[in-house]
Amino acid sequence: MKKVSIIIPVYNVEKYLPKCLDSVVGQSYADLEIICIDDGTPDGSAAVILSYAEKDGRIKLISQENQGLSGARNTGIGSATGEYIVFLDGDDWLDTEAIKAAVEKAESNSADVVMWGYVREFPDRSAEKKIFGSDKTFDEKGSRELHRRMAGLLGAETSDPSNADSLSTAWGKLYRTDIIRNNHLEFVDTKIIGTEDALFNLFYFGFVHRAVFINSPFNHYRKDNEVSLTRSYKPKLFSQWNELYDRMEAYIKSNRLHEEFTAALNNRICFSMIGLGLTELLNRDKKARIRNIRKFLSTDRYRKAYKALNIKYLPIHWKVFFILCKLRCACGVYFLLKVMSAIIEK
Predict the structure, then answer these.
(1) Counting Cβ atoms within 10 Å, is residue 342 exposed (0-12), middle (13-18) or buried (19+)?
(2) pLDDT for res 229
(3) Least confident span in 39-43, 104-108, 221-225, 288-292
């Protein structure tokens, strides 16, 4: 039996941590190392972890000064002794069979990575995020396509722009520790906070020769955490995402990757207006919202990306939205974002 190291960064999740830890200690797969990183959390999360550690020797608590999500994960990687690594956020949880199913797929397919689906957990409902319609195994060619997908969507994939990051999360995957260690892979600094996962996976999938996707929503992604990064206004998001694009462009260029990677990254840039815009709706300075959207759309990077955007595969509502983006019609984009936000909240 191969040991799996589950790395759980912990910051301000005292309220949600018991459900997370219950889901991990209750896994049907027993050979686990559960590494909880207390990233300088000001709440009582560390005490919760210690209470669980007293009952289960597989739980290890590491406390450090706050280094952000990337720093916490890197600490976990450095401490991991398992053959496989799984990342789990402290406010999320796993189905009981997740690790067992993933390890079995990895071993039987000699896979470098195993992926699975997830459920978004809203306050009043659960919604499964559909990624692929069935279990899939990716050979060498398929793995190269997955690698490109970490840069962005392409072709028919663009029919649903909301899927831009559905596969690029660090959670929802079983990684091989030796690939991470041997290639000195790590999560980057907080300059691109909120998009660390996409860059890490772009690096990691460059070494993947065989991958497996399990069409089961094993991860439960909490959407009702009021202190979550996804629930607050992020004034630095635009600059952080531009830092991500700079690093992706540099990676693509230095590795002389196919032009499809650049096209996919351009699509990522175009589709990012959804996240940027929805974040602007949380800006308390209402007068600045449309002004900021217009500023984003007017930058050279976004103008060039929209000029190259192929809207062929987009449904009509997305075509309208991105045509308005291409025309830099900030008021129209803002109006559609308000409609979009109202639908999401329902």
Answers:
(1) exposed
(2) 44
(3) 221-225
